């Protein structure tokens, strides 16, 4: 079984570079379907399994794609299919984001209900409510959704019952080519929404107010491909901040944007972690003792749910009792059981987890129950006594570029053992089999485009 092996106890020091944001690049690549002419050139595209999934979805719809050196070029002058393949959509929730662009562009789409991390029921009612308000006719059956917009989508006033990131993005993309003006009230305010709006505007769209609760989109006739740099991944950055703090380390996270991480920075400071923000990154230094704090996840600018499990790992080594409350997803405490295998003292009570800090962590065999849970287990393992084996790596590979290589470059004792049993030493980055696997995948992308 493929696993990551961590020997705890090393203090992390040095510099780590943040990759482009997974949660920004996925909607941006979906939005590239809106351009009827010209290539889109998307820079800082991280080489992740989720990125490969979305590029395969786009290719299956008729887009032409190439990837080289973190740059993806997409052109979609013709859309050849209105059906997004089930086996790709079920893999990743964000692939559902092609629904808005397809409806706007060709007025027809057939798509299965999306898959993704099992962190809650994750309905899509707000996406569908938005499309219906714009005139789409939607039928649901046997796990599939069919939608048509016999006449062009029309601008509408849409109020979201929950400030859903995905629904805001999907509706924004559909509205970009609709007739008239759409307003989204109670829109999500995440930095990834702003990045998507910037890209849509670079393509000739007219989106205003992204980053606030009220977004206004004036539909345009046509859009052209554009060049765009994806924002740095705030969740990856936050994860390395925790990795530094949990090991009493001193790490500069290059590329991290402080404004995107305000709630995380503020909680870490409350705990006693020293944070220095600069133009090109964030330095995170931590001493021997950290204070317990309470954390409640909320939509942006609240504390991000995608950082909840990593934060819990840090609270395990703090002094005192903390209460972690998850309000965004109803089933995002599955990592608790895994932490408990590492001797953690945590009690779940409904939507809250009561964490008793300071109980020494010990290495164990654990399994990543979702993407961020996997990263959190690695953080805990960096501090634990002895060896930890983390399995369930398909989750981690969705969202972290070369996590073993990056942590090793900071001094961690961590390596990846592929299923074939090729365990490589912790020495150089290039010796890491995960990196090798990724290099192989890039090579495949280069020589054998999926649209061929
Ligand atoms: C690819 C991507 O960007 N994923 C992120 C995105 O997921 P995603 O876009 O799926 O998350 P949403 O913001 O839509 O979900 C937030 C909450 O709204 C609910 N909801 C959502 C849509 C809907 O139609 N009806 C409804 O009730 C969900 O069940 C959840 O409880 O935002 C989440 C919340 O910050 C993050 O954890 C994910 O990492
Ligand atoms: C939950 C996440 O992703 P997704 O919405 O793609 O499942 C995440 O990035 O932590």
UniProtKB/TrEMBL annotation:
Transmembrane segments: none
Residues reported in the UniProt entry to bind phosphoenolpyruvate: 22-23
Domain Enolpyruvate transferase: start-end pairs: 6-407
Subcellular location field: Cytoplasm
UniProtKB keywords: Cell cycle, Cell division, Cell shape, Cell wall biogenesis/degradation, Cytoplasm, Peptidoglycan synthesis, Pyruvate, Transferase
GO cellular component: cytoplasm
One GO biological process term: regulation of cell shape
Location, primary (coarse class): cytoplasm
GO molecular function, one term: UDP-N-acetylglucosamine 1-carboxyvinyltransferase activity
SUPFAM superfamilies, sorted: EPT/RTPC-like
EC numbers, comma separated: 2.5.1.7
Enzyme class of the recorded protein, top EC level: transferase
Keyword Transit peptide: no
Pathway(s) served: Cell wall biogenesis; peptidoglycan biosynthesis
In-chain residues carrying the UniProt-annotated modification 2-(S-cysteinyl)pyruvic acid O-phosphothioketal: 117
Ligand binding (UDP-N-acetyl-alpha-D-glucosamine): 93, 122-126, 306, 328
Superkingdom of origin: Bacteria
InterPro entries linked: Enolpyruvate_Tfrase_dom (IPR001986), Enolpyruvate_Tfrase_sf (IPR036968), MurA_subfamily (IPR050068), RNA3'P_cycl/enolpyr_Trfase_a/b (IPR013792), UDP_GlcNAc_COvinyl_MurA (IPR005750)
Active site per the UniProt annotation: 117
Catalytic function, reaction form: phosphoenolpyruvate + UDP-N-acetyl-alpha-D-glucosamine = UDP-N-acetyl-3-O-(1-carboxyvinyl)-alpha-D-glucosamine + phosphate
Function of the protein: Cell wall formation. Adds enolpyruvyl to UDP-N-acetylglucosamine.
PANTHER family: UDP-N-ACETYLGLUCOSAMINE 1-CARBOXYVINYLTRANSFERASE (PTHR43783)
NCBIfam families in the record: murA (TIGR01072), PRK09369.1 (NF006873)
UniProt cross-references to HAMAP family, sorted A to Z: MurA (MF_00111)
Family according to the record: Belongs to the EPSP synthase family. MurA subfamily.
Name of the protein in question: UDP-N-acetylglucosamine 1-carboxyvinyltransferase
Organism name: Paenibacillus paeoniae
Gene that produces this protein: murA
